[in-house]
Amino acid sequence: MDARASLSILLLLFGVSQASPLMEKGFEGVFVSEPEPLDITTRILETNNGSSEVLIEGDLLFPKTRNALYCLNNNCFWKKNANNIVEIPYIVSSEFSYYDRLVIANAMSTFHSKTCIRFVARSTQTDYISIENKDGCYSSLGRTGGKQVVSLNRYGCVYHGIVQHELNHALGFYHEQTRSDRDQDQQQCWEHS
């Protein structure tokens, strides 16, 4: 993938993850509202304060089997299928309420409407995302192989923007401040891509 396409996708996903409407139309015409405006970073850091996991940059799960900064043969990326769609198998823990599941599904549907990413219910796939009610808001970076936990604590993380933020990490996206081109002038970026 060329640098221009990568930058475009990253900017799109970042924009999508930062969108946190107070009221949005959900599945089957159900409106899902969030109780208060969110500062995603503050909410994530406060929720992760007591986490038992070793986290990098506040919400990236420290890799136990590989270095997250090095991706041999692109094996840490989810692959496009023959139709240029990236299917991400997932399961959602039964600990989540109907409302929680609706928020998670709505966050996933935004990816469907704006990108080539499709979250699909897991059947027999070996590599998949398991969305679980753990002690914080965090994910590992990119496809890790096998079951990949995305933690969304029911009492601090199940908000549209936070779900998208953690799913972005599971897809392989870092925080903006860790990008190699973070200090470049935005106009210069666009002129050279």
Key descriptive features of the protein:
two-stranded antiparallel sheet; 32% helix; single chain; alpha/beta; five-stranded mixed sheet; 19% strand; 193 residues; Collagenase (Catalytic Domain)
Task: Itemize the secondary structure elements and their pairings.
Layout: H1 3-18, E1 23-25, E2 31-33, H2 40-48, E3 55-56, E4 60-61, E5 86-92, H3 98-114, E6 117-121, E7 128-132, E8 137-139, E9 147-152, H4 160-171, H5 186-192
Parallel strand pairs: 5-6, 5-7, 7-9
Antiparallel strand pairs: 1-2, 3-4, 8-9
Helix pairs in contact: 1-4, 3-4
Quote the average pLDDT.
76
Class from secondary-structure proportions: alpha/beta
| Topology-level CATH name of the domain at 57-63 and 70-175 | Collagenase (Catalytic Domain)
Low-confidence stretches: 10-14, 19-31, 187-193
**SS strand fraction:** 15-25%
The CATH class of the domain at 57-63 and 70-175: Alpha Beta
Assembly state of the chains shown: single chain
Count of DSSP E strands?
A: 9
Helix and strand pattern: HEEHEEEHEEEEHH
**C-alpha geometry:** globular
Distance between the termini: 12 Å
Main beta sheet: strand number and arrangement? Answer: 5 strands, mixed
Name the CATH homologous superfamily of the domain at 57-63 and 70-175. Collagenase (Catalytic Domain)
Helix content: 25-40%
SS element count, helices: 5
Radius of gyration, in angstroms, nearest whole number:
16 Å
Q: How are the strands ordered across the major sheet?
A: 6-5-7-9-8
Query: What is the CATH-assigned architecture of the domain at 57-63 and 70-175?
Result: 3-Layer(aba) Sandwich
